[in-house]
Amino acid sequence: MKKCGLCLLEEGVFGAEIGEGGTCNYCAAWDRERGALTDFDALAGVFRRRIDKVRGRHPYDALVGISGGKDSTYVLYKLVVDYGLKVLAVTFDNGFLTDYSKRNIETIVARLGVEHVFVRPDWDVHRSFYGAVLKKFADPCIACAMAGYFHFTRICHERRIPFFVHGRSPFQMFRNLREGSGDIFVSMVRTGIEEHSPANLMKLNAMVDGKLRELLGQVFDTGEEIERVYREFFVDPRLFGPDLVPEHLGFFVYHPYDEERIKQMMEKEVGYRRPSGDVLLGHGDCEIHDASSHLFEKVHGVSMVTLEIAAMLRHGALTRGEAEAMLARHRWGERVPRESIDRLCARLGLEQGAIDAVIENFRTSDGRKYDSH
Fold first, then answer.
1. Which end of the chain offers a freer environment for a tag, N or C, measured as fewer CB atoms within 10 Å?
2. Mean pLDDT in the chain?
3. Domains plus CATH for the chain?
């Protein structure tokens, strides 16, 4: 198959289209927006104006979701130490946090002296959501991303916290940046680089709410099931008042990103510890990440990190040779992460072999292929 001469995406994979110049539509979209998305002097100003506008007006200036990984640790550190904000640190305990993650969280919040809470959803509801998403999309990470991010929105609404600041890397946030992208986080980024506007946020939240209801309609058969999950995780945007519309802010939209520098700094400043077998794009905070990435590869034929690595190439964070080596390193091939798969099945109440059944269903039916989270 033809590959993009820059980011290595294959034509037809994730909607990639190779143009006459040999590069893809993702690269074309990045070229159009690169100037605005890499002007960190201007973007840092946008971020600071947002923060200063509400600083001290509410019980907390911001909520930070912390997983125990390097990126969320860094965001929490920067908001507390550099920006001087009063922050509520929240960990969404989805049932798959590793012991490594929990130890890091305990160390970091103690060092920074911030208030921290674990949020544990109703497991019956969460298990139902995970299982339905797994069967429909063969990607339980979708359920985690949606439930975690929008449960934080609920907390912001209930506690009157103006911002949820997260630590997604730019390669995660911009991996689906292309014309016609269905990734709701791309829309959040675009709204986030504009000057603050409650009206724009209300419009964004209404759009996101519609997409979430569409997602729930795809994975559940009855309205009762849809409403049960919706009530657990999401907030009807019509409940937001014009004086406070919670906003998702990606810290690394406004600030440069360097994974290794972040790790070294957090080790020095707050006692962050790397997971065993630490690698770029690793996920030492999640017990089922290996199962999810294995399943993704079996169903879609490519690595789960393909889009992130393509984004890293566009950003100049990798050479072509480094990207090819990383893609090879993250491929499962014939290897099977049995421990991670067993953990996923046990928590979801699935029989052994359920993962194989999901894979077979996608091979023999018109199961929906991956487009974007």
1. N
2. 90
3. 1-35 (no CATH), 38-254 (3.40.50), 280-364 (no CATH)
